[in-house]
Amino acid sequence: MSIQEMTGLQLMQAMIEGKIPAPSITKTMPMKGISVDKGKILFEATADDRHLNPLGGVHGGFAATVLDSVTGCAVHSMLEPGVGYGTVDLNVKMMRPVPQNVTLLAEGKVINCSKSVCFAEGTLKDENGKIFAHATATCMIIRP
Fold it and tell me: pLDDT (tens digit, 9 = 90+) per residue, 108-123?
């Protein structure tokens, strides 16, 4: 089956299972899919020395990119074959500094989805549930 014939959920499952390559952003921002269900996805993400700001802390763009990825992938898991999406709005709240070289869990969940727009939220937490960032996203649905 080609990627164009897969539902969004099938594509996300194939990516997590290593049947298709992960997107190149996962090299820039070290993240890896762990699990996916319809409307929900879980990633691991680790900031390293490539993600530091001038003060030596992890740049806020790391959390924003990871949260954009999990909210978008959660939305993608809801879509039929050949249907795409694009982030229209991403609102990120930084709760505390993201640690360097610590594997965090990023979870995306769909809140509501219609034919033309989906709303999702995402969190970036440590293994104990301490939250580092939260986001809400609005994604437009792109139909052929």
Answer: 999 999 999 999 999 9
